[in-house]
């Protein structure tokens, strides 16, 4: 008796109980799809985080004050950082003040969380170029001209489609002329990074922020590889001017590392949850296989009485179990691939091939083992015992 | 006449030692080709045990059993399977058709296990179904057939390999008298066509149709006599 013949028996066996076969496959399908998709979501979120941090610029350092009020960062500190002798790796230094403000234009009103005052070097350092119009110049900054560059969100809210360049907006009781619009940046979180306005620091201090300490100082380095060296250079300068512990320096690369680590942990947790669902699915398969074989012990007895060799019976049940788990697993992978085309909780999933292999492998092994084991036992039964089985 | 079944002083003991049950206690029996034999006896007399041994479903504890001249006790498990497939046709009390499988597929099953090609298998299965008058029900599944029809499908399945002997264990036990008559008349025709039939029963009218009656009691043969068959249906011999 050849293999195709036995396979036909197996197919008939699967078809003979469609509901049960469907439910068995559904169990495996859900298990495999869950593992694949959840790992893909974890992987996707890790990639998104990494992309966002890279967009911030991997070659910048941010100096922030750890204390409020006196003793914070001043313009003098910022100027001191731009010292080619002590800190040759520094390309530019941009002092930053940031304050919430309400912008109005012809009755339209829009409140933004950060009205940024800075120097022209900020645009290059923060990886945030101007799309239309122009950035303000060093001269604008020196003269404290009231000019502003706005983000995409602000442009839409205030001008709703019209070209904002050359128009005027009111902020803190003063008129600012819009000179440009920033290029859209991939939004991170609820507070969009496009909801921003950038003006010369001198003007912002005059009109909105006052002459208190700076919010932060953005230091651009020559490249990602020099970030570590520059960090120690500017720390030397800062230690001379500020009390130790009064500031901290944030490094985008470090940030990337921590975020990647936590994203990895996230993926592991998701994977573990999914693995549990695969395990539960596997127990379901095991149960159904056991029931199937037990219920069909009598049928096995009949087949043996009619002259079916043990090998043929065993092969038939193994093929049945394999087909169920392979079809179920395959459909599970297909479902996961289909599901990964759509964002899930704001994350675009990215499928990890090894998770597909693992999930498929586990489900097929479970099907084979727990389908094969009871079948082997039943195939070994003497035909009269199997026939008497109720 | 050639001997098909030759049972010599066979005993079968279930269990061990003092608790052992002697289901067969020195049974000897010879069945020649073309015979129609009925084995009768009350329950517990060892009928089913004898049937299992005759059908190679079970091996005797002592004694020898020659099936078509071959000593069954010397066969391996695989050879026994082969012997069941080639030499014996079973008809069970509970029909034992494979559920959710068409009548013709059920009949084909023993041929499939013997490795026959699909087309030839189908042809023989249809011929066999025709013999029991169910060719028009070939595609029906067991639960779409009456008890009598199911048992006739089982007979067709037993016949399809052209076995040396047809073993029927209480073939009418689960049937009403009308359906039982249907099945028994098929046996009459088959015997008339030259098939060897061993039928195990506790019903007198079933036993009366055979031309040899063996009575068992407590695992021993208490009588073995030829008889004039009674109650066979009128068309008997039509298949000759």
TrEMBL record, chain A:
<feature type="domain" description="ABC3 transporter permease C-terminal">
    <location>
        <begin position="272"/>
        <end position="381"/>
    </location>
</feature>
<keyword id="KW-1003">Cell membrane</keyword>
<dbReference type="Pfam" id="PF02687">
    <property type="entry name" value="FtsX"/>
</dbReference>
<dbReference type="InterPro" id="IPR025857">
    <property type="entry name" value="MacB_PCD"/>
</dbReference>
<comment type="similarity">
    <text>Belongs to the ABC-4 integral membrane protein family.</text>
</comment>
<feature type="transmembrane region" description="Helical">
    <location>
        <begin position="312"/>
        <end position="338"/>
    </location>
</feature>
<keyword id="KW-0812">Transmembrane</keyword>
<dbReference type="InterPro" id="IPR050250">
    <property type="entry name" value="Macrolide_Exporter_MacB"/>
</dbReference>
<feature type="domain" description="MacB-like periplasmic core">
    <location>
        <begin position="21"/>
        <end position="236"/>
    </location>
</feature>
<dbReference type="Pfam" id="PF12704">
    <property type="entry name" value="MacB_PCD"/>
</dbReference>
<keyword id="KW-1133">Transmembrane helix</keyword>
<protein>
    <submittedName>
        <fullName>ABC transporter permease</fullName>
    </submittedName>
</protein>
<keyword id="KW-0472">Membrane</keyword>
<feature type="transmembrane region" description="Helical">
    <location>
        <begin position="269"/>
        <end position="291"/>
    </location>
</feature>
<feature type="transmembrane region" description="Helical">
    <location>
        <begin position="21"/>
        <end position="42"/>
    </location>
</feature>
<feature type="transmembrane region" description="Helical">
    <location>
        <begin position="350"/>
        <end position="373"/>
    </location>
</feature>
<dbReference type="InterPro" id="IPR003838">
    <property type="entry name" value="ABC3_permease_C"/>
</dbReference>
UniProtKB/TrEMBL annotation, chain B:
<keyword id="KW-0547">Nucleotide-binding</keyword>
<dbReference type="InterPro" id="IPR003439">
    <property type="entry name" value="ABC_transporter-like_ATP-bd"/>
</dbReference>
<dbReference type="Pfam" id="PF00005">
    <property type="entry name" value="ABC_tran"/>
</dbReference>
<keyword id="KW-0813">Transport</keyword>
<keyword id="KW-0067">ATP-binding</keyword>
<feature type="domain" description="ABC transporter">
    <location>
        <begin position="5"/>
        <end position="239"/>
    </location>
</feature>
<dbReference type="GO" id="GO:0005524">
    <property type="term" value="F:ATP binding"/>
</dbReference>
<protein>
    <submittedName>
        <fullName>ABC transporter ATP-binding protein</fullName>
    </submittedName>
</protein>
<dbReference type="InterPro" id="IPR027417">
    <property type="entry name" value="P-loop_NTPase"/>
</dbReference>
<dbReference type="InterPro" id="IPR003593">
    <property type="entry name" value="AAA+_ATPase"/>
</dbReference>
<dbReference type="InterPro" id="IPR017911">
    <property type="entry name" value="MacB-like_ATP-bd"/>
</dbReference>
<dbReference type="InterPro" id="IPR017871">
    <property type="entry name" value="ABC_transporter-like_CS"/>
</dbReference>
<dbReference type="InterPro" id="IPR015854">
    <property type="entry name" value="ABC_transpr_LolD-like"/>
</dbReference>
């Amino acid at each position: 008796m050849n293999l195709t013949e036995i396979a036909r028996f197996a197919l008939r066996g699967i078809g003979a109980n469609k509901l049960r076969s469907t439910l068995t496959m559904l169990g495996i399908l859900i298990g495999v799809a869950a593992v694949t998709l959840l790992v893909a979501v974890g992987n996707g979120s890790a990639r998104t985080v990494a992309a966002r941090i890279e967009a911030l610029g991997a070659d910048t350092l941010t100096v922030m004050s750890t204390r409020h009020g006196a003793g914070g960062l001043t313009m003098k500190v910022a100027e001191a950082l731009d010292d080619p002798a002590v800190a040759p790796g520094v390309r530019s230094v941009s002092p930053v003040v940031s304050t919430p403000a309400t912008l109005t234009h012809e009755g339209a009103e829009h409140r933004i969380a950060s009205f940024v005052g800075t120097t022209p070097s900020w645009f290059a350092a923060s990886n945030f170029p101007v799309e239309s119009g122009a950035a303000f110049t060093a001269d604008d900054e020196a003269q404290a001209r009231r000019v502003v560059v706005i983000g995409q969100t602000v442009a839409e809210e205030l001008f709703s489609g019209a070209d904002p360049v050359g128009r005027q907006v009111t902020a803190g009781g003063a008129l600012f002329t819009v000179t440009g619009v920033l290029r859209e940046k991939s939004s991170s979180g609820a507070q969009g990074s496009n909801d921003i306005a950038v003006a010369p620091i001198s003007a912002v201090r005059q009109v909105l922020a006052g002459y208190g300490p700076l919010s932060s100082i953005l230091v651009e380095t020559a490249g990602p590889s020099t970030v570590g060296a520059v960090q120690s250079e500017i720390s030397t300068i800062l230690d001379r001017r500020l009390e130790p512990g009064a500031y901290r320096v944030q490094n985008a690369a470090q940030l990337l590392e921590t975020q990647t680590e936590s994203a990895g942990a996230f993926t592991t947790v998701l994977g573990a949850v999914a693995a549990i669902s695969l395990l539960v699915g596997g127990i379901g398969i095991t149960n159904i296989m056991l029931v199937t074989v037990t219920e069909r012990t009598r049928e096995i007895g009949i087949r043996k009485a009619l002259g079916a060799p043990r090998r043929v019976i065993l092969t038939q049940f193994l093929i049945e179990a394999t087909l169920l788990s392979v079809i179920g697993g395959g459909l599970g992978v297909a479902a996961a691939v289909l599901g990964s085309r759509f964002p899930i909780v704001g994350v675009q999933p990215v499928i990890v091939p090894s998770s597909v292999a693992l999930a498929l492998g586990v489900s097929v092994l479970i099907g084979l083992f727990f389908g094969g084991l009871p079948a082997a036992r039943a195939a070994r039964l003497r035909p009269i015992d199997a026939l008497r089985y109720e | 006449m050639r001997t098909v079944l030759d049972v010599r002083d066979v005993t079968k003991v279930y269990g061990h030692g003092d608790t052992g049950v002697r289901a067969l206690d020195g049974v000897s029996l010879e069945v020649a080709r073309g015979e129609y034999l009925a084995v009768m006896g009350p329950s517990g007399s060892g009928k089913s045990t004898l049937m299992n041994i005759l059908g190679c479903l079970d091996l005797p504890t002592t004694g020898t059993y020659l099936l078509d001249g071959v000593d069954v006790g010397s066969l391996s498990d695989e050879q026994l399977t082969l012997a069941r497939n080639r030499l014996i046709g079973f008809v069970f009390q509970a029909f034992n058709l494979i559920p959710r499988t068409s009548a013709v597929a059920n009949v084909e099953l023993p041929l499939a296990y013997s490795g026959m090609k699909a087309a030839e298998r189908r042809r023989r299965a249809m011929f066999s179904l025709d013999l029991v008058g169910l060719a028009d029900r070939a595609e029906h599944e067991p639960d779409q057939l009456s008890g009598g029809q199911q048992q006739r499908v089982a007979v067709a399945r037993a016949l399809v390999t052209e076995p040396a002997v047809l073993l029927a264990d209480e073939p009418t036990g689960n049937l009403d008298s009308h359906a039982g008559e249907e099945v028994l008349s098929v046996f009459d025709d088959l015997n008339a066509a030259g098939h060897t039939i061993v039928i195990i029963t506790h019903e007198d009218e079933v036993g009366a149709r055979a031309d040899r009656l063996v009575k068992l009691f407590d695992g021993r043969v208490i009588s073995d006599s030829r008889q004039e068959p009674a109650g066979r249906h009128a068309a008997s011999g039509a298949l000759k």
